[in-house]
Specification:
The protein has 222 residues and is an alpha/beta fold. It is 29% helix and 24% strand. The chain has six helices and eleven strands. It has a seven-stranded mixed β-sheet with strand order 5-4-1-6-10-7-11. Strands 2-3 form a two-stranded antiparallel ribbon. Helix 3 runs antiparallel to helix 5. The longest helix has 17 residues. The N and C termini lie far apart (41 Å).
Amino acid sequence: MGGKFLAIIPVRAGSRRLPNKNILPFGDSNLLVHKIRQLKKVVLIDEILVSSDSDEMLEMAISEGVCIQKRAPEYCDEKTKTFNEVVENIVSNTECDIVMWAPCVCPLTSIESYEKAIEMFNQKVLKEKTFDSVISGKLFKEYLFDENGPLNWNPEYHVPSQQLPEWKTIVNGFYIARREDMINWKFVYGKNPYVYILNKKEAVDIDDAEDFEVAKALLGEG
């Protein structure tokens, strides 16, 4: 419907909180290879690209038969360039119409969710034009406080958590937008995204060692 659809897996050699995060052992491979193999099963994706400064990771991508993009070190050190500049650099150096930014740190996102999210993009963004992008998220229903007290509930009129406001948080499952929009925004989604809700398992987002252990346990390795 919208032209060539490219899935980009952005990875880099360094990781502060969890060393070598992107290639930690997972399933029968590692997080990067696991994500490549997941995305290969999504029939609506035309091409997969791994963008990295790491020759080791790029070799893994080549071995899996997907495209690679060698990124300059300054676009990977989290110091020299802002994330906005990184997005612009990666996406500008591609040839496609639609981009799915697909980090490998959400390894339990299902094939079905990827496909439904792409269908939502085709419908909500390209056809109806009611949203400018599609992103992955999860429902957030918790009792919140700040220094002034309760934010989203009243202790005098207590309600079950199911009746709290239906807030959403973003997770790194995927971000889908037109290539030209990502370049113009210098970001992976726009001001009016459609939030595709993942279930709790799919929404596990690996940021530290505990998250990694949870993901492995849910996969059946723990």
